[in-house]
Design a protein that fits this description.
The complex is a heterodimer of chains A (285) and B (757). Chain A is α/β, with parallel strands linked by helices and 285 residues long. Chain A has 10 helices and 10 strands. Chain A has a single domain, classed as 3-Layer(aba) Sandwich (Rossmann fold), CATH 3.40.50.300. In chain A, the strands form 2 sheets. In chain A, strands 6-7-8-3-9-10 form a 6-stranded mixed beta sheet, with helices on both faces. Chain A has a 4-stranded antiparallel beta sheet with strand order 2-1-4-5, with helices on one face. In chain A, a hairpin with a 2-residue loop joins strand 9 and strand 10. Chain A is globular and about 60 Å long. Chain B contains 28 helices and 8 strands. Chain B is mainly alpha-helical. Helix content of chain B is 69%, strand content 4%. Chain B is globular. Chain B has 3 domains: 266 residues, no CATH class; 132 residues, D-Maltodextrin-Binding Protein, domain 2 (3-Layer(aba) Sandwich), CATH 3.40.190; 248 residues, no CATH class. The two termini of chain B are 58 Å apart. The longest helix of chain B is centred in the N-terminal third of the chain and has 39 residues. The chains are: A alpha/beta (285), B mainly alpha (757). Chains A and B meet through strand 5, helix 2, strand 6 and helix 3 of A and helix 1, helix 8 and helix 15 of B.
């Protein structure tokens, strides 16, 4: 395994299965591999249930991979989880802010957990609150903040230790257009500061505008990976949304042909229905 | 990864980890504490409520007490005019001097007989007055009382006291009137004696003086040392539950748990920080509640003195500080258990579902010490929580030497429980399934279909536990519905056989038929070599002296109650009267067969492949022990269950275990007969003592050696059966097994000659 500085995130045939009491094991992530370098924004695009969140949760060491490896800044997520967590800032719509803590206390608490000294944390907090324009609600309790404010606090919390790698999982979910636009601006600034960013979403326009390279995920697999230009060229399709859906439906057809030959009846029927559901959700997005 | 790079990173990691450990725990602890303090509801239940509750309750109690003391008993006397010129009972409007203890406590009303005799019966009038609550007590002196001779013998001349036992006031009046009338009678007797010229001292042939050597303080301590630890522990439990739910299930619900999990704090740091916060809340609740109660009650008791002879007094404050010694470990224990259980829940509401049963299970451990007659002893000190409770009680009562004697045992048991609970909590936080439990809907039809399709050769783990639970529950109900002890041999046999066949053998049989693919494998009915069978039988006979000794030890530690011995007597009598062969079948053959197939067959067979052998052995032994209704039997049976489970594992079959079990039970019912029928050679091994027939000491010692040799021989024989279908990364217990296997398997060529002895 080569670990050079030009790949901050290195994911190698990552696989994750969940035990399911009804259906047996559920394959959430299936042999996923990719690399992200510093100063790069990497987008994971996929419908709900494609396995994006699971991949990012494994990268943030909250879940353990069933097989395969992932390295962040050279540390293996399975063997050195504490070190990995020092290298990352993780923002997801599952990482809420504490209700009974003010914005400043929240950010300071996580700075202290990162082993920063009190003075260091204060200085960094002032910096971040100014940068993200959140001085107005500095001393407001988490429960009283709006969704956009809470998301800003989460970002400040993730940035407090100035990590080289940032992971945003559906970070714009539930934000209004203005706040979402603001957030994308922040992400672009972070890229300018040389951070390595990985960004998951089901909104195509965000990916088109923001990401250097894109991986299209569907049912636990990466269907294709490359820059926007590369993908367009490869599939001979200039409209990105069309590209996405043709890729998905082509995969479904192949998969269907495969399963008809090998997989027993029960799993086939259930996978068929979930594919329909996924496609529906992708359409509305 | 290049090796030097890896090394660099790992040393780096160790240094930083050591540095952050304490500070991370501290940060998490203080954050959680601040969070709890900012929650008004928590603050109210933990701090404000107890501080206000007890003084409020106390003031209400004080008022009620004063009210009842100041309320005099109202006594009505009808027919005072019938008393005549005997020793005076009354003096004007009061009782005669010296008769009533406290003049103010009695309110006296007189009615002349004539005043009510206007057409109605005095007795019904008296009854009516008591019913109305007009008087607490009515004293009726009938006209016949005037007649000197009738007074002593005739029923009509009796002085009658009317009262209502359901009314507290009336009962108090009765007690007071009783005292007064007794004194009056004594005075009357004395007067009569003096009149007839006798010495009144013959009424008091001797003098009695009661001297209570207990000091007032330790007497008060005896009461409070029972009540206060109970109050404190119940509050310690309650105080741990709500913060535990809030800190784990609540955080999951609010979505902040994942935020914490992706911070650099390790899982164990998170657990320690949270555990500290929960334990602090638990201790604060316990201390504030018991402290507030202590102070309030000592204030109350200083206000109302109950007299020198009262069993309850003001609580001694200083000795109660010993309670803090018990509070720290027990709070930690409750907190760890609550934290681990709360981790299973996905929301606060769900958390309450999990914690209520937990409280129900723990409460008996706190209640046992409250039972009358429960004292600190070698036996009780081994019970978790109860032992600590009793130890502290004797410390409060000032029995330091006695307490010191039991400290090692109590400390050992408590630390073991604490270690287990903390491990459980830590494991919960490392388990993704617990932390990110899926929100899927449970679909019964799919589940049944999958259970059917996925049937294995042996039972699944839940099925094995289900079978154990089914046996225990049906045995419990069978025992409850058990009728009278039959007297004839046939129905006695039915009484013994019915639970064995229907409640122990039938469940595994039915479950094995329906839910497994191989009846023979599920019940482990596998053939084994004759060496294994011989070893099983030999081990049963050789282990019996040790087993008997264990039985004696257990019954000394936890003596059987008189009732239990009385209840078992008819069974023993019946057994003694039946022919030997019948007894062997009833007590040895059938139970050995049924119990082994159920426990070492179906249940062990289901647990061992998935849970590792040692866990399977222990779990089976505990279930086996629990299936024996009497506690003393259960303890012995659990020990026997470990040996049987180990044999089942080594041989892969139930048959050697059946022989072992048979031999043991057969010896129990037979040694008496061996002796009384003077079998040849029997008196070499057994002798008659005061307690009955027992083994000779030399044989007891020798049999232990033989047991060791037999166990050694068992290990020399290779492990048989299906134990190979284990996944390689199984639990630790199984790794130990691997070690044993390797040690004994590799160098050995199991020669039949070496195992026949």
């Amino acid at each position: 395994m080569r670990t050079t500085i030009d790949s901050m995130i290195d994911v190698n045939s990552l696989t994750k299965t969940y035990p399911d009491s009804n259906l047996g094991d559920f394959l959430a992530v299936d042999r996923v591999s990719f690399r992200v370098g510093p100063g790069e924004i990497f987008g994971l695009l996929g419908a709900n249930g494609a396995g994006k969140t699971t991949v990012l949760r494994i990268l943030s060491t909250v879940l353990a991979p069933t097989s395969g490896e992932a390295f962040i800044a050279g540390y293996n997520v399975s063997t050195h989880p504490e070190e990995v967590r020092r290298q990352i800032g993780f923002v997801s719509n599952n990482t809420a802010v504490y209700d009974r803590m003010t914005a400043a206390e929240m950010v300071e608490h996580f700075g202290l957990l990162h082993g920063m000294s009190k003075i260091e944390v204060r200085r960094r907090c002032d910096e971040l609150f100014e940068q993200l324009r959140m001085e107005d609600f500095r001393n407001v309790l988490g429960a009283k903040l709006s969704t956009g404010m809470q998301q800003k606090v989460s970002i400040a919390r993730a940035l407090v230790h100035d990590p080289p790698v940032l992971i945003f999982d559906e970070a714009t979910l539930g934000l209004d257009v203005l706040v979402a636009r603001n957030l994308l601006g922040i992400i672009r600034d972070l890229k300018g500061a040389g951070k390595c960013l990985i960004f998951s979403t089901h909104i195509m326009s965000e990916v088109e505008r923001l990401c250097d390279r894109i991986a299209i995920m569907h049912r636990g697999r990466i269907l294709d990976l490359g820059t926007l230009g590369e993908l367009r060229k490869r599939h001979n399709e200039s409209d990105f949304e069309e590209l996405f859906f043709s890729l998905l439906s082509r995969h479904e057809q192949n998969q269907g042909a495969e399963t008809r030959n090998t997989v027993p009846l029960e799993s086939q029927s259930s996978s068929g229905s979930s594919a329909e559901r996924d496609a529906d959700e992708g359409g509305t997005a | 990864m290049e090796p030097d790079f890896d090394n660099l990173k790992s040393t780096d990691r160790l240094v930083s980890r050591r540095r952050s450990r304490w500070s991370a725990i501290r940060h998490i602890y203080f954050r959680e504490m601040r969070d709890q303090i900012r929650d008004r509801r928590t603050l109210f239940t933990i701090a404000i409520l107890p501080i206000l509750l007890y003084p409020l309750l106390g003031s209400v109690m004080l008022q009620v007490a004063q009210f009842s003391r100041e309320h005099p008993a109202s006594i009505c006397v009808i027919g005072r005019d019938h008393l005549g010129d005997v020793t005076p009972l009354f003096d004007g409007d009061h009782f005669a001097d010296g008769l009533a203890e406290d003049e103010g406590a009695v309110e006296l009303i007189h009615y002349d007989w004539g005043m009510i005799r206007s057409g109605e019966d005095a007795q019904s009038k008296a009854t009516q007055w008591i019913d109305d609550g007009r008087f607490d007590l009515v004293l009726l002196v009938p006209p016949e009382f005037l007649d000197f001779s009738a007074r002593k013998s005739q029923d009509e001349a009796k002085v009658r006291m009317f009262f209502d036992v359901t009314s507290d006031q009336s009962r108090v009046a009765r007690d007071r009137a009783f005292v007064i009338l007794n004194r009056w009678r004594n005075r009357w007797v004395r007067d009569d004696l003096v009149q007839t010229g006798l010495d009144e001292s013959i009424l008091n042939p001797f003098q009695l003086d009661e001297i209570d050597v207990a000091q007032q303080q330790s007497k008060a301590a005896a009461f409070w040392s029972k009540l206060l630890p109970f109050i404190m522990l119940v509050w310690a439990m309650t105080g741990a539950f709500y913060p535990a739910i809030d800190l784990v299930a609540g955080e999951k619900e609010r979505g902040t748990l994942e935020t914490l999990l992706c911070s650099p704090a390790s899982r164990s740091e998170i657990v320690w920080g949270k555990l500290g916060a929960v334990a602090t809340a638990s201790m604060a609740t316990a201390i504030l509640n018991s402290g507030s109660m202590l102070i309030t009650s000592s204030f109350i008791f200083s206000k109302i003195s109950l007299g020198a002879g009262a069993a309850v007094g003001a609580p001694p404050i200083l000795p109660m500080l010993w309670l803090l010694v018990a509070l720290v470990p027990l709070s930690l224990l409750f907190s760890a258990v609550a934290l681990a259980a709360a981790a299973l829940a996905r929301s606060s509401k769900e958390g309450q579902y999990y914690l209520m049963p937990l409280m129900m299970i723990t409460l008996p451990l706190v209640l046992i010490p409250m039972l009358p007659g429960t004292e600190l002893s070698a036996g009780t000190s081994l019970i978790p929580v109860t032992g600590m409770f009793l130890l502290v009680r004797s410390l409060v009562e000032g029995q330091f030497l006695f307490a010191a004697l039991h400290v090692p045992m109590v400390l050992g048991v408590t630390s073991l429980c604490l270690w287990l609970a903390m491990n459980w909590a830590r494991r919960q936080f490392e388990d993704e399934a617990v932390l990110f439990g899926s929100h899927e809907q449970f679909d019964l039809r799919k589940w049944v279909r999958r259970a059917w399709d996925g049937r294995e050769k042996h039972a699944s783990v839940p099925l094995a536990y289900f079978c154990g639970a089914m046996i225990l529950v049906s045995l419990f109900f069978a025992k409850l519905s058990g009728g009278v002890m039959p007297t004839d041999a046939n129905s006695f046999a039915v009484l013994l056989l019915k639970p064995q066949v229907f409640f122990i053998l039938l469940p595994p049989f039915a479950l094995a038929l329906v839910f497994t693919r191989s009846f023979r494998d599920a019940l482990r009915l596998r053939s084994v070599s004759w060496q294994h069978l011989a070893l099983g039988l030999g081990l049963g006979i050789a282990f019996h002296p040790s087993y008997t000794l264990l039985g004696h030890l257990v019954s000394t530690l936890y003596p059987l109650s008189e009732q239990a011995i009385e209840a078992m007597k008819p069974v023993v009598d019946q057994i003694n009267h039946l022919p030997w062969v019948t007894v062997l079948i009833l007590i040895a053959v059938v139970p050995a067969f049924c119990e082994e197939i159920a426990f070492r067959g179906f249940i062990f067979g289901g647990l061992a492949p998935k849970q590792g052998h040692w866990r399977a052995v222990i779990a089976t032994a505990l279930l086996f022990g629990a299936s024996h209704g009497v506690l003393q039997q259960s303890i012995c049976a659990t020990v026997m269950g470990v040996l049987l489970g180990w044999v089942a594992y080594r041989t892969g079959s139930v048959f050697p275990g059946i022989l072992l079990h048979f031999a043991n039970n057969a010896m129990t019912v037979s040694i008496q007969r061996f002796y009384s029928q003077s079998w040849r050679g029997a008196d070499w091994f057994i002798e008659s003592t005061a307690d009955g027939v027992s083994y000779r000491p030399w044989w007891s010692v020798a049999s232990v050696l033989i047991v060791m040799i037999l166990i050694w021989l068992f290990q020399r024989l290779s492990v048989c059966g299906d134990e190979s279908d284990l996944s390689p990364d199984d639990v630790a217990g199984e790794r130990i097994e691997r070690g044993i296997e390797e040690e004994y398997e590799t160098p050995v060529n199991p020669a039949p000659t070496s195992t026949s002895g």
